[in-house]
Design a protein that fits this description.
331 residues, alpha/beta, elongated, 7-stranded mixed beta sheet
């Protein structure tokens, strides 16, 4: 009988040891809920971003999802964040339509222990970090160099932004205009910061109005993903594709047809899927108590050696596309 009790006792010790060393701890198996909030739902740019957020979830076993308002509206974004706070998500990655309008609600999120990461909002305060795909001033100056080359460095041009509250768009244009004034004195800005509200139809209507109002207008820069496409459609309808230069931010999936016809001359972009992944990866590091440092490799092309300035993380991730190389990109 004594021998049997010794056997039972030994088995109990083995079971306890196995429980300690073989069964994952609650902390190790804890699943986080990562939310990504974009400016506008149903837009190809943010559909692409969703792929990156979902990939992060698949690779890490966390729950990830992306949502946005039916129209570009700061108040609607605020409501979405309020709802996410109530759901007690672990992190919120956000592309703000109007950074200033979101400051109070993002502060409430941080007060609840939610990690907050923004994109295209280098002026925002109530976040752990803001992610920029590249130096915005360099990107804007690059647009002007492209446009000047296409226009022969002379003639009238106009610029379009998603909104006057879009920090990144206005940084692009500040740098583009400064570049023109410094290097291309024979070019003239005739319409500064026309707003499209990230809406292709509005960009199209504004471009038509500009082309009619300024008969010598021969160049456009569009900052929102939908801007070059709306502008390109107007240019094509008016038969001006051989006389008008159009450059700006877009994706091949929406701008490709206009690159083919010459209604758009060149687009540039950063892969939204990579940004979606990176924002969530940074949030995960914050939740794990890990710091972000200058020079870190975030494991995504264009973000292998980041620059950290205060809360702003900057990569080197823009891509230039023309008719000649558009087939290399399937998004």
């Amino acid at each position: 009988m004594k021998k049997n009790w010794l056997i039972i006792g030994g088995l109990a010790v083995i079971i306890i040891v196995a429980a300690i060393f073989l069964i994952p701890s609650q902390k190790a198996s804890e699943q986080h809920k990562f939310a990504t909030v974009v400016k506008l739902s149903g837009l190809a740019w943010f559909d692409r971003m969703e792929k990156g957020t979902l990939r992060f979830g698949e690779e890490t076993g966390n729950e990830t999802f992306l949502l946005g308002p039916p129209k570009a509206d700061a108040a609607l974004q605020v409501q979405i964040v309020e709802d996410l706070i109530a759901q007690k998500v672990s992190s919120i990655a956000i592309v703000p339509f109007a950074p200033e309008a979101l400051e109070p609600v993002l502060q409430r999120a941080m007060d609840q222990g939610i990690a907050v990461i923004s994109h295209e909002a280098s002026n925002i305060n109530n976040v752990n970090y803001d992610v920029e795909a590249f130096d915005n001033a360099a990107y804007g100056a690059h647009f002007m160099d492209q446009l000047a080359d296409l226009m022969g460095a002379k003639g009238e041009y106009a610029v379009m932004v998603g909104s006057l509250t879009s920090k990144s768009h206005n940084e692009f244009i500040d740098a583009a205009i400064a570049r023109q004034q410094e290097v291309y004195p024979d070019m003239k800005l005739v319409a500064e910061r026309v707003e499209s509200y990230d809406d292709q139809k509005i960009a199209y209507e504004r471009a038509k109005e500009l082309l009619k109002a300024y008969p010598n207008l021969v160049g456009f820069i569009g900052c929102a993903m939908t801007d070059p496409v709306g502008i390109g459609l107007a240019v094509e309808e008016m038969g001006l594709q051989d006389k008008t230069a159009v450059v700006g931010t877009s994706l091949v999936s929406v701008a490709g047809a206009y690159l083919e016809t010459g209604a758009i001359d060149a687009i540039s972009f950063w892969d939204p899927a990579d940004v979606g992944y990176v924002m969530n990866a940074i949030a995960a590091r914050i939740l794990a108590g890990e710091a972000i440092a200058d020079g870190d490799n975030l494991g995504v092309p264009g973000y292998e050696q980041i620059t950290l300035n205060g809360k702003v993380i900057t990569g080197q991730a823009w891509i230039d596309v023309t008719k000649e190389n558009m087939d290399q990109y399937d998004f």
